[in-house]
Amino acid sequence: MDSRPAADHIAQRVVIVGGGTAGWMTAAALARFVPASTHITLIESDAIGTVGVGEATIPGIRLFNQMLGLDEAEFLRATHGSFKLGIRFEGWSGEGSGYLHAFGSIGRALGLVPFHHYWLRGGGAANPASLWGHSPGAQAAMAGRFATDPGRPDLPSGLAWAYHFDASLYAALLRRHAESAGVVRIEGKIASVARDAAGRVEHVALEGGHREPGDLFIDCSGFRALLIGETLAEPFDDWSELLPCDRALAVAGERASPLPPYTRAIAHGAGWRWRIPLQHRTGNGLVYDSRYLSDDEAADRLLAALGGEAIGAPRSLRFTTGRRKRAWVGNCVALGLAAGFLEPLESTSIHLIQSGIARLLEYWPGQTLQPVEIDAYNRETAAEWLAIRDFLILHYHANARHEAFWAERRAVPLPDSLTARIALFRANGRFRREGDELFAEAAWVQVMIGQGILPAGHHALAETLSAHELDDFLNLTRRHAAQVAARLPTHDAFLAAHGAAPAQKVFA
Fold first, then answer.
1. Rounded distance, CA 216 to CA 35, Å?
2. For residue 281, how many C-alpha atoms fall within 13 Å in the half-sphere facing its CB?
3. Which residues are the active-site residues?
4. pLDDT tens digits along 326-338
5. How far is C-alpha 206 from the geometric centre of its chain's CA atoms?
6. Please, are residues 39 and 13 in contact by the beta-carbon 8 Å criterion?
């Protein structure tokens, strides 16, 4: 029985332009939540490839899958996925350096005071790496262990997890899910877009003559931004002065064994490279600034770092970091790469699709398109993108590498918003989360401390514990993290029992 509401609304006909991860995530979510009378059409062409670099995620993806009713084990089998407890940043403070941005909790707060203030009072600044001894997620990740049930239901584990997966297989899974819920897919290339007298999108025309009219259009056409950019000419806010990497190469490599339950982000002389462990292969990529590294040099650097044979040739991607000033214009909403691009340093690409969909559902149009609601959507979207942009800039700014690219990153003036956050943290370890921004205190604290931004003091209320009580508290949180990790099976063993993908056929 269909549980969606049946109600009259302006968006009776929804046309999604483009497939891939963004298009099929949108189609599956709308099919689940919008009124049953809505006709949802997705137009895509098999002849148009997808970018396919967004194979690592953050914990919010679990909620999206749960809302669609996707079973976790089914999802992992279908996408050849693995579990992810965080991101290991290697070399950002010089060769040999490293830290983990772990998901989940670090220690625990006491009253009004976050945990890291007690850690600072206990001398943590003199031994920054000790912070992760209080993180169950970090301890489990570095030991190669994982389970969704840590074995002590009477105690909070502090674990949170996301996934690594094949984005093309995820899109295929969502396509099956959406089409079974009534979404109609049309194969073909769009030849032209027509606008009505008010300047809104009226219909799209395909090669061959078919016209598809709609009330609400969702632009998931990738970097081309066919509707929001080419048709509606919404300006693009270029952030390349702050995040200047403009190229990426991606190639598959041999499967890692054992499978680490974390993504790797490894700095190199003109950017960074990723390693994403899947059940059947390893996703590898190299992000770089073309002013400091040629395409041929980048390919050589990527292939030399694989540690095994490449599967296919590297695929090239050119981009400009930034976003459309407005993601919702008239009757068109841009999602995914059509809305903008932030390099996958903190695995936010798929999350931005997900949050855009959630925000669209929050402001789903009723009898009329209300400008005040469209403005609210755009205002909230802009705030989210800006906060993530600042978080990415932090990684580049707080580096200790000697190469010219990295020296330039340290010297470039920061946005006022980021300057204020760093100054507040340097003083006494304080962090203020603004509104509903994505990354919470634990994330910012790990990156700042991991890359050498250390507070001069700590919260005065952390002094309420006696020295003996402080030692007991820190020892307790450290033991808890170690014990949670020790109780877990290996990542490989848990994955084999909870979501192992079918063995791939090998052809001679």
1. 14
2. 17
3. 84
4. 999 999 999 999 9
5. 32
6. yes
